[in-house]
């Protein structure tokens, strides 16, 4: 796998899918660009959009959305996702 300090846009699709699976996320059956990460305190929906990586956290009925540039490295995005809303 490409080092975690490499920007997301320099990873292959297969590498990114493996990364999300390793985090415990599952791919949406109908939309392969959408992934779900279900944790005990909150849930996250990760969406590979055209310009950015979108993360929407849901906790207690409240939604929080952030956009991440594909130029940001995988480690920073992973830390942001796992930090939660």
The strand count comes to: 5
Level-2 CATH architecture: Roll
Strands across the major sheet, in which order? 1-2-3-4-5
Question: Unreliable runs, pLDDT <50, ≥5 residues?
Answer: none
* Helical fraction: 10-25%
Gyration radius, in Å = 12 Å
The largest sheet, given as strand count, sense and whether it forms a barrel, is: 5 strands, antiparallel
**Helix-and-strand structural type:** alpha+beta
Q: In percent, how much strand structure appears in the residues?
A: 25-35%
CATH class: Alpha Beta
Number of domains: 1
Mean pLDDT: 93
Distance between termini?
28 Å
Number of separate helices: 2
What is the ordering of alpha helices and beta strands? HEEEEEH
CATH topology value: Nuclear Transport Factor 2, Chain: A
- Shape designation: globular
What does this structure look like?
With 85 residues, the protein is an alpha+beta fold. 25% of the residues lie in helices and 34% in strands. It has two helices and five strands, in the order αβββββα. Strands 1-2-3-4-5 form a five-stranded antiparallel beta sheet, with helices on one face. The relative contact order is 0.22. The model has no long low-confidence stretch (mean pLDDT 93). This is DUF3143 domain-containing protein.
């Amino acid at each position: 796998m490409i080092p975690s300090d490499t920007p997301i846009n320099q990873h292959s699709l297969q590498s990114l899918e493996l990364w999300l699976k390793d985090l415990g996320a599952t791919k949406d059956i109908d939309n392969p660009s959408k992934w779900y990460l279900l944790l005990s305190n909150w849930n996250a929906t990760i969406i590979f959009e055209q310009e950015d990586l979108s993360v929407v956290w849901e906790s207690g009925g409240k939604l929080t959305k952030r956009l991440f540039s594909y130029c940001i490295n995988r480690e920073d995005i992973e830390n942001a996702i796992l930090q939660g809303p």
